[in-house]
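Retro notes - structure team

What went well: the batch runner handled both jobs without manual restarts.
What didn't: labels got mixed up in the shared folder, which is why I'm recording both outputs here explicitly, each with its sequence directly above its tokens.

Job 1
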Amino acid sequence: QVQLVESGGGLVQAGGSLRLSCAASGSGFSINVMGWYRQAPGKQRELVATINSGGSTNYADSVKGRFTISRDNAKNTVYLQMNSLKPEDTAVYYCNLIATMGVRKYAYWGQGTQVTVSS
């Protein structure tokens, strides 16, 4: 079983920065992809950014050039550095992990952390 613990959300003014962290714990798994998704009130959950085991990244167009995803493989931790935040970035941010256990892949979600950007 894999557990994800997120931290780093909060309230920030437009133009400010926040850094989210997500640490994975457990045993018997190897991480394939880690990423961040977000869900604003009344909207569907959407992809923000992902990073695979080789370090390749993928970003939503809306955050390109402002957000940076990175990972520390030794700590099984993924980070999301968010700069130049806008009110439309306000959402609950969820960490996602795709892991291989044995011959199967599983998807795990964090509990979510609130990010609020005031104008």
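Job 2
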Amino acid sequence: QVQLVESGGGLVQAGDSLRLSCAASGRTFTIYNMGWYRQAPGKEREFVATTRYGGGSTSYADSVKGRFTISRDNAKNTVYLQMNSLKPEDTAIYYCNAVTYTGGVSYWGQGTQVTVSS
């Protein structure tokens, strides 16, 4: 089992920055990939960014490329999402996700609210 706890959300103005954190615990040695997804009111959950937990490739949704950066600190078992130049359309609950090597089991955090006012 892997447990994920997000933090860092809040209310900001358009153009501001926020950094989200996702701390993993439990069987973290089984994690292959970690990422961020978001869900706005009345919309489906959508992909934001992902990174190989052991290092290597990252991937971003087109809507956040150039503004968001995903990074990790394996010593702290933590993945970050640095969000710059925030827009009102970035308002959503942001969820951390981890996928394991074996069986591709997917774990989710409880989510953290990000609200961007215009």
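One thing worth noting from job 2: The chain has a mean pLDDT of 95.
We'll revisit the folder naming next retro.
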